[in-house]
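Quick question, first post here. What does this chain look like in 3D?
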Amino acid sequence: MDSSASLELSKQILFSFGLVLAAGTVSGFLSQRIKVPDVVIFLLAGILLGPEITGLLHIKAESALNQIILIFGSCYILFDGGASLRFKVLKEVWITIAALSTVGVVIMTFITGLAAFYIMGIPFTVALLLGASTASTDPATLVPILRKLHIRERVSQTVIGESAFNDVISAIVTFGVLAVAMGSGEFSFGTSFISLLKQSIVGVVAGGLMGYLAALFIAHEKFNFLAEYAPVVTLMAVIGAYLGSENFHASGFMAVFVFGIVIGNKESFGFYMSMAEQKTFRDYVFTTAFIMRMFIFILLGSQVDFSLVNRYLGGGVAVVTIFMLVSRPLTVFLCALPDRRARWSINEIIFMCWTRETGVIPAALAGLLMGLNAPGSRLIASVIFIAILMTLFIQATTTRWLAGRLRLLEKT
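> Answer (accepted):
Ran it through. Tokens below.
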């Protein structure tokens, strides 16, 4: 590529970034005025700016630029979500989080796959592939919604914790089914379990180590020589935790989430920051996470292929309806009710049944399946986009109302 072409491409990318920032700022202001989650308005703004309507925003889903934004944005939002969790709460609800993130994903995969098999008349392996791809929840949506609503702490942290941990098992199940669907292997429970265990352990160790080192250099009484550079340290550590884990074929998303948990609970390790430093740090994280959320969902909206969605609209809506009203509630009841330690109330369980938006991770899996030319990949991508639209516009917008009706909102 010659220099003039590179310059023109740079100008186009710069224009796209400015457009996203402008649209995101207006959307954020509008979401506050009408009291709707900002991710919903971001998605609508992206659809408006994308090729389907105005054609002002052209960043393709398979482009390296989009992948960088998607990966780093998701990592930073996961870090932000992890930093909001507290050890004392996790000790109470960890059994439910573990069950929802593992057994729950398998239940969701099977029920959703069964619905797709009967409703859409597709091969059972393709139906299971669809179920596995849609099984994980979306921290990029849930973290900002729950943090703004001040919902009962143990409920919000359970949903956030599940959304961070379940992407690992969802990816493993997806690629296990994919191997069978493409005739390149057979699904092995033992192999998959060992893979899950390895990814989990490496991710937790990498995130924990990176979190401890970061806390040491920004909040230790003697070694906090990077205290005034805390925001930069977290940026480096988020990237380091993700890439370090991925290089060892583990979950980078789990690593950055654990990194966030360690930073958010640094006092438990004897690390402290002054009130002024804490406020500066929190403000920076809040602003950066907002920008990442803005880019992710505006770009996601601009990449919705409505011709593809329309092709499978009827069956897709039916499958997603079962996914929302049957698969998720059954999964939550089966995973939460046996947890005697948490002692969930029926109102808390009902809220968790409804709160599970689909977003970035399923969309990324859909793009990957299309890139691999997997069986039924275009159908799967269509249904995933339908799930994103339905869960964001129906579930995300009613989260505050439902929390109020169930008396789960806490006074601030």
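The two ends are 56 Å apart (CA to CA).
The longest helix spans residues 3-34.
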